[in-house]
Amino acid sequence: MFGTILLPSIILAVSAFEDIRTKRVTNKLLLSLFAVVFIVQLLVLKQFEFAESISGVVTAFLLLSPLFLLKALGAADIKVFMLLGFLTGPYQILNIFIFSLVCAVIFGFAIVVQKKGSAVFFQNIKNILTFKKDQVSNLQHIPFTVALLAGWICYLVYQYHGRII
Predict the structure, then answer these.
(1) Domain range summary for the chain, segments of one domain joined by +
(2) What is the pLDDT along the chain (165 residues), one digit of tens a residue?
(3) Residues near 162 by Cβ (< 8 Å), separated by ≥ 6?
(4) Are 19 and 145 contacting, i.e. CB atoms less than 8 angstroms apart?
(5) Which of 38, 55, 77, 105 has its C-alpha lying 20 to 30 A from 64's C-alpha?
(6) 61: Cβ–Cβ under 8 A, 6 or more apart, which residues?
(7) Alpha helices, DSSP H only, in 1-143?
(8) CA-based angle 151:29:138, to the nearest 5?
């Protein structure tokens, strides 16, 4: 349970806290988290399946790369997600991605409604979908690590209870 639920939860909570507090997740923090993950996977759990972990990293990278190229999220978001992919593997990271994306959209829309900027929001969507990334307004900034944490929680609820609501 430590390696499959608690460790990813701690990593995502630390990353989200740092992202909210400083609006960035440093490479130093990410390397420290990776070292902990690697040591726990290798020494404590004795269940280290390197091929599955690397597949999870590659899957995470491939899922978030288009969003990074569109400037919809930063490099630290990809690194945190790749770390999560290392812990969970390729199949789980796909589900976590879907839940996290839904959470990000909900958070983003809530911020837009709060700021009363729905016209700019829909213009941003249009600009992103038509690859006009230089015309995207910075109406809302949500730390994607928070959406990852929320997506992880939704995934756990779904995984262990079979439904979210």
Answers:
(1) 2-161
(2) 555 788 888 888 888 888 878 888 888 888 888 888 888 777 765 555 777 888 888 999 999 898 888 777 888 888 889 989 988 889 999 999 999 999 988 888 787 777 766 666 677 667 667 766 555 555 456 788 889 999 999 999 998 887 665
(3) none
(4) yes
(5) 38
(6) 78, 82, 85
(7) 7-22, 27-39, 50-69, 75-88, 90-115, 118-129
(8) 55
- Helices 118-129 and 90-115 pack at an angle, to 10 degrees, of 140
The single-letter code of the amino acid at 18 is E
pTM listed for this prediction? 0.78
Only one residue has tokens 């690590």, namely 145
In this structure, the number of other CB atoms found within 10 A of the CB of residue 22 comes to 11
Q: What are the tokens at 165?
A: 């609501």
User: Within 10 A of 18 (CB to CB), how many other CB atoms are there?
Assistant: 19
Which two tokens mark 147? 């959406």
Q: Quote the tokens at residue 144.
A: 């994607």
> How far is 71 from 41, CA to CA, in rounded Å?
32
